[in-house]
Amino acid sequence: MATAHFLEVDGSVFDCPICLERYKVPKVLPCLHTFCRQCIHAYVESFAKPESDEDENSAHYIECPVCRQRVVAPRPNISSEDWANTFPGNHLLLSLQEMNDGQETPKNSVLCEPCKRVNERKIALFYCSNCDEKLCKSCYSYMHSRIPKYLNHNVTGIIATDSILPSSNDVDHCIIHKNKSVRFFCFDHEELSCSVCYDAIHHKCTNVKPLDEITENNNEEQLEHISCVIASFKRKLNSEIKKTITNVQQIEELQETIKNDVVTFVNDAKIQLDELQDKFLKNLEVMHAFEKSCLQNKQITLENFVQNLAHSELTLTKANANRPSRMKFLTKQRVKIDLTRHFDDFIKQENSYNWTTYEWKENAMLKSIKEMENIGNVRVIHDDSDFVSDLRREIELIKTPTTRNLQNPTNKASVVVNYLTSYFVRCQEDETVPWITDGEFLNDGSLMMVDKKNSCIKRISSTTGTTSILLSKKSEEIRGLCTTDGDEKVFVSVGDTISEFSLSPTFRYQKDFSKEKMEFYQLVARQDIIFAHIGNPWCVRVIRKSDGKILKTLTGSSCGYGYFALSRDGNRIIYSKPGSVVCDEVESGNQVFQCSLKELGTVRKSIKGIGVDFHDNIYVCDSIGSSIIQISNDGKFVRKVIPKLHQIKKPYAICFDKSGKKFFVSSWLDTHCKIELYELHF
C-alpha cells in the first residue's frame, strides 16, 4: 500500500520576499521568483516604468525585486491589477505549502474524511448526517453547496462559534500580515494598514493618519453609531428570517393546493370523458341499428321485386303458348299493371338504395387533449424585495468616510435611514414630464407637491399611489407651497402673489394672501408667520399671515435660485449659496456655521434641496452623486447618510414631514419623475 511522505521544508520557503509573510495567492514571474499577488500588484503600481520616455503609449516594465530581471507588460495601458493577475500561479509552491500545513495539523484535530481518503490532512469544519462524514471547508463548498443532490443534506458546524471569531488581540493585527500590528488608517481607501501595507500600498495616498492621532478625537460615539447600525441590521435580518419561514410555509401550502387542484381536475376530466364515452357508444349503437334495419328492408324489397319479375315473366311465357289473341292482350296488360305497381312500391324507398358507410370525426378538444404535452405550468413569481438594497445602504453607512474635521456625529446626528417605498408622479394627457420642486406630507399620509414644469399642485395617495391634480394654473407659474400644522390651510406661491386655499373638506381658493407683488418661490410656515423665498432681488422675507405684512428681510440671504430650510423652533435658517451651505440666526443674522461644497463632497455650484430633521440636522441633495448628505446641527460633522439612493438619479428636492422623522426625495430627469420615501431611526 502506498504511503504519503510529507516533505520537511523550512518555513521561510513559504515567505514572500516583499512582505516577509506567508504567501497569499503566490504569483510567479518569468524569472521564477514568487510573490504574493497583492504584493506584486502594489509593486507594479509603484515601480512600473515606460520602455520609452518619448512614447506615452509604450509598454511598461518592472524589475524583479529579487534578481532585477526586466519584466515587460503584456500590452500597453494595462492596469497594475490586471498585469498582476496575468502572472501564473505557483501551484507547486501551493502544494508544498498545503503539505507543510498538513504536518502542522494538531493531533487532536478532527480531520476531513474525504481528504483523508486521498492522503490529505485538513481540519473538518462541518458534519453531514446524511453522508455520515466530517468535511473541510473545500469539500463542503464544492460538494454540498454546488451539486444538486447534496443540497438538501443536513450539514452542521462542528467547531464552536467562539473559536472562529477574532479575539481582541486579532483586532490589532493586519488582516494580510498576521504578525504585524495595524498602525495607520488610509481615508482614501478606507483601510487599516500595518507598516508593510503602508510602504507597499498607501505611501502615495494623501490622507493617511496614524491611529493614535485619530483615536484621540474618536471613538465612543462612532462605536455607538456602528452598534446602532448593527442593531438595525440584526432587526432586519431577524425580520427577514421570519418572513422567509412564513414564505416557506406559504409555498408548502400553495404546492399542496396546486397538487390537489390538479388531481381533482384530472379526476373530474376522467369522469366527464367516461360519461361522454358511454353517451357516444349508446348513440352509435342506436344509429347503427337504424341504418342496419334500413339496409335489411332494402334487401327484402329487392328480393320481392325480383320474385314479382319472375312471376310476370312466367305469366308472359304461358300467354304465348297457344293462347287466343284476346288472352294474350289481357295478360300483357295485367303484367304491365303489376310491374308498374311493384315499381311504384319499390321507388318509395329510393333513399334506402344509396350506399351507406360511417365516417368518424373526433371532437377538436379531444384531439387537443391527445396532443397535450402537459396539463399546465406552475410559474414561479419572485416579488421585488428591497431587503438586500437596505442592507447595502446600512453597510455604506459604516463604510462612508467622515469628511469634515474627522469628527464623529453627536448622538442626535446618529441616525439609520430606511427606505420605505417609491412612487411615479403620473402625467396627464396634455402634460410634460413632471418636475417636483417642493412638497408637504399631509396628516393622512398622502403627499402634496408642486409640479413646477406643468404649473400645478398634485397629490399622491399613500394607499393607492395614484396621482391627482388639486390646482392647475397654465397662465401663471406655481413655485412653492406650505401648510398649517393641522392641514386646515395651504399657502401657494402663484406668480407674483401668495394665495390661500382651504384643504378640508375640499381644496378651495380663499383669498390672495400677500399685499405686495413679488416673485415668490419656496414657502415655509412657522406659527403665525411665513418665510418666503423671493426673486429679483433674491432674498428671504418674513411675512405675517394675518395681514400679509413684511416683517423682515433676512440679511445675507441672497442665496440665488437655491433652497432654504428652518430649524424646528424657527430660530435658525439654512440656505444654499454659490459654493456653500450657510446657517444663520434668524433674529440677529449672525452666521452659525458654513460648509463649503468641497467639505460636502460635491462639485455642484448650488444645492437644490435642503431639509431639517427632528434634531435639526441638515440634509441636502447631491445630484451628481445621487446621494443625500447630512450636516450635524452644529455644522461640525458631514457624511453621506444615503451614499446611493434606491433608484433615483439626480435628486432635486428633499421634504420632511412635520415630525422630522420621514422625508421624500424627488428626481430631476427628462424621461420620468419619481419620488422615494425614507424614514429615520435615531
Give a quick rundown of the structure.
By secondary structure, this protein is of the alpha+beta class.
Structural class: alpha+beta
Strand order of the largest sheet: 12-35-34-33
Termini separation comes to: 68 Å
- What can be said about the biggest beta sheet? 4 strands, antiparallel
What does it look like?
By secondary structure, this protein is α+β, with helices and mostly antiparallel strands. The protein has 4 domains: 97 residues, Herpes Virus-1 (2-Layer Sandwich), CATH 3.30.40; 57 residues, Double Stranded RNA Binding Domain, CATH 3.30.160; 145 residues; 294 residues, Methylamine Dehydrogenase, Chain H (7 Propeller), CATH 2.130.10. The protein is 31% helix and 25% strand. The protein contains 14 helices and 35 strands. A 4-stranded antiparallel beta sheet has the order 12-35-34-33. Helix 1 packs across helix 2. The longest helix is centred in the middle third of the chain and has 100 residues. It is flat and about 160 Å long.
